[in-house]
Amino acid sequence: MMGKVRDHLQLVERWKGLDLRLLPIDEVDVRILGKLRENARLPNVEIARDLKISEATVRRRIKALEEKGIIQGYSCYLNYQLIENPVKAYVHLAVDSAHRERVVSHLCAHNRAIAVYRVTGDHDVLCVMLFMDMSELHEFLDRHLRTDGIRDVRTQIVMSPYKGVPWTGV
User: Fold this and answer.
1) What CATH number does residue 46 fall under?
2) Which of the four, 5, 21, 42, 55, has the lowest number of CB atoms within 10 Å?
3) What does the pLDDT look like over 73-85, one tens digit per residue?
4) Is 36 inside a domain boundary?
5) Which residue range(s) make up the domain with 95?
6) Is residue 42 part of a domain?
């Protein structure tokens, strides 16, 4: 529960001190978003009671946030560590520009890819991957990354989180 409260406060703190006129949301929206981050299944009535506003205001605000694309959906966070023994790996790739689109499409389609980013620095692409075990990671590196256009691969394995990503539990 403490982590959920901390997440809510982090969202509120993120925009604290900003001139909210610079954002497409106001303080009420920020507080509603904080509550939804804490628990997306929270009934509008409960959000309204906690924030001391009407349920109709909460309902209207959430609908507007969805229509603006600020709320893109609702999700269920799984703690993979309670289900399996996951291996979270950051795979850094140096990719020739002529092959980037093909390589990135292949990576994005892989079922173990959590996120694929274009990055700056020595490498061009960063893949966040979640594997069942080390042998699956090894197979991925050997089967999927030995292809034309990939000049270099560096892999980092997460040993344990100091502050993890909620949806992976790692």
Assistant:
1) 1.10.10
2) 21
3) 988 777 777 777 7
4) yes
5) 80-157
6) yes
Model confidence, pTM: 0.69
Structure token digits, residue 87: 């291996």
User: Which strands form 125-131's sheet, in the order they lie side by side?
Assistant: 113-118, 125-131, 87-95, 150-157
What would the pLDDT profile of 70-121 be if each residue is shown by its tens digit?
A: 999 988 777 777 777 789 999 999 999 999 999 999 999 999 999 999 999 9
Contacts of residue 67, Cβ cutoff 8 Å, sequence gap at least 6 = none
Using the structure block, give the residue that is written with the tokens 């981050």.
37
